[in-house]
Amino acid sequence: MVRGKTQLKRIENATSRQVTFSKRRNGLLKKAFELSVLCDAEVALIIFSPRGKLYEFSSSSMQDTIERYRRNSRSAQPMQKSDEQNMQNLRQETASLMKKIELLEASKRKLMGEGLGSCSMEELQQIEQQLEKSVSTVRARKNQVYKNQIVQLKEKEKALLVENARLSKQGMQPQQTTKDQRENQPYAERSPSSDVVTELFIGLHRS
């Protein structure tokens, strides 16, 4: 037979209530003892009966355990308050950032020429001034880039002119014949009398 669940409500009969208290008190004290032994936990249990009688269990010293609980409670409260304050600050910062993003998006659309129907004359003048300032900044930057490129090109041109002058000077310099080159030339090329023909006759000279 399946046992039904006991309905949790106050037992009206005083005798039954006292019997139930005694049974469950003993079971709770037993569980506290087992928890301290099996898990090496520091356990303290305090029970007051309906008549005000005290029942307690402590795995070590009840006073030391209570003092430890008080210390942890005091240290946990400021930390909890600090966490709540940090969360509140984060929510405020998030809301502020979202608002700034919305304003920037609206300003961007207006600068792109969108959503101008609801703008007043003063707002339109401010947008016009911002655009003119942006155009001036872009033009100034473009001119600076042009100037830098011109300077670089002039430096390259100057370097090329110097290199061309050096190469031209080397190519137009006359070659000089060294002593070794003259000695290695053939005799016919070096002797000025190489074109004279000498005849040798043996015997009487004939006029």
Automatic annotation (TrEMBL):
CDD domains per record: MADS_MEF2_like
Gene: LOC101510775
Compartment list: Nucleus
GO biological process, one term: regulation of developmental process
Name assigned to this protein: MADS-box protein SOC1-like isoform X1
Taxonomic lineage from the root: Eukaryota, Viridiplantae, Streptophyta, Embryophyta, Tracheophyta
Domain K-box: 87-177
GO cellular component, one term: nucleus
Disordered, as annotated region: 166-196
Domain spans labelled MADS-box: 1-61
Keywords noted in UniProt: DNA-binding, Flowering, Nucleus, Transcription, Transcription regulation
